[in-house]
Amino acid sequence: MIRTAFRTRLPALLPLLLLGAAHAQLSAPATVARTAGVYPAAAAPGETAWIFGLSGVPAEGKLNIGGQTTEYRLDRPSGWLAFQVPQAAAGGPQTLTLRGAPQTLRLNVLTLPPGTDALVYVRPDGAKTVQAEYTRRLQALTETCAKSCPAEVQSVLKRLGAQPAPALAPLTAPVKGQGVTPGLAARAAVPPAVRAPLINLNTLKATNLTGLLNPVARPPAAPADSICSALAGTVPTAGLPLGQVLTLLELIFAGDLQTDPTWVGYPTQSDAPYQNEKPITVLQKVLQVRAASGKGTTIHVLDTATPTGDSFVMDGDINYYNQLYGNRPYHGRAVGEIARAVAPGAQLNYRQVCEKDGTCSTLKTVQALCAVAADARRGGRHVVNLSLGGPNPTRGLELALREVTALGVPVAASYGNRDDCAGLVAGDRCNHYPADWTRSFEFGPAVNLASRSLRPTMLFSVAGWDIAGGQLATYNRGVGNPGVLTEAPSVQAPGEFWLGGYPYFGTSFAAPVVSGLLASWMSCQPGVPLLPLITTPGQAPIAASVVNACP
């Protein structure tokens, strides 16, 4: 599912900075129980979800999910407050606010294509437990829920328990030597593995669902060790609410299992002057690129392309500067060509994680990142380009990103385009992962630069910079959506190029500019460069000292 945003001329220059500062947290009142929470942790538009552990609120009323309003009512058997996720709800983590009780909760709104199943990651020493006790644990929880859970939850438990345990296979070949290299990688290292306590059959028989959901009693999530050593399997969810399946499996196998949707996102592309000029010519004009090389570095392009081709075609016409271009081919190949233009001396490694229809596989993306980690352990310098993403944060992707960045491998991720936020209203949060994790991948001491305190990151969230206007491009996520909340990017780069007579534009094509610059930097400099978000109109978005770091 490719999303395309068309350029419009807007006077606003820096709305993203305002939107990024608009988010505020509300404190919990004394009348709300400390165990208050949301079940399931994720739900799709149209599905039912519940708030548990609240007191002192009316039995029915209204609540907000982001900027969307929906009604709730008391489910008397469970004491939970039931509500339906609005069809127009924004995707990804949204603030959930109950009117009359200023308790702020979170719900991950799943905006996923039909047929998305549950992907499970199981730590190797827990695989036998998961397969042997899968049905018994679901049956045990079904029995304890018989009188205390909403009827719909009971039905889901029964139907899920009627399925066989998922078949499990190693996510990748066993990864040897989990240590990380010193220096930069050590500062960004994954925390040491800690064996999480297990939920067992006796616990499930003695505890109802509310007790399991209690955040005080719930064991930490797992696996805490290398995602690349996990086993993986798929649980079919046809006719079942995916969010409940994900939440229930994590609850009954806490300490051994984690879950994700099988779909991780889509390639992002969105409108380019300098018609039919080569990308390097454009970059020489706007960034004054002189002698970029990237020699000795490998750029891994995780996208629609394979080493031999790219079967993706964007169906239909795109309107670019009032001219129609039909059936534009490629996405990953275009990304790779831009990266190669910036760093011609780098080796390009295409890893296909997205299908020709534009849907991207969670499992394939995690496996590709684990393969990059294995390459990094064998030596050399590596960069990852991810010109894809979606509104829902996937745990396997985050863990795999931490695996590669802990080895000193930086990642450039597309920030996301304006169509990601289409139809959202004030108060909705417009998410795009993995780019929105950029702050959590920061490391080392802060650096004072132009009266700002900045820290370097191993995950660069790359927004598009308008070549013609010399400023933040209007196709970026959040632009033109007043009141919609979004995380600010970490850096801007030109994202408008011509290849093979077609225009390629959007944050997908800004990310490989940064990937190429990272490869060029790493060919002669240690670590990664500090790339601040430069927002001064007319000023180049990336400093010359980074663009031309090598002689």
UniProtKB/TrEMBL annotation:
Active site annotation, chain numbering: D303 (charge relay system), H331 (charge relay system), S508 (charge relay system)
Organism: Deinococcus soli
Family: Belongs to the peptidase S8 family.
An annotated Gene Ontology molecular function: serine-type endopeptidase activity
Name by which UniProt lists this protein: Peptidase S8/S53 domain-containing protein
Signal peptide: 1-24
Taxonomic path: Bacteria, Thermotogati, Deinococcota, Deinococci, Deinococcales
UniProt GO BP: proteolysis
Keyword Transmembrane helix: no
Keywords, alphabetical: Hydrolase, Protease, Serine protease, Signal
SUPFAM superfamilies assigned: Subtilisin-like (SSF52743)
InterPro entries listed in its UniProt record: Peptidase_S8/S53_dom, Peptidase_S8/S53_dom_sf, Peptidase_S8_Ser-AS, Peptidase_S8_subtilisin-like
Domain Peptidase S8/S53: residue ranges: 339-526
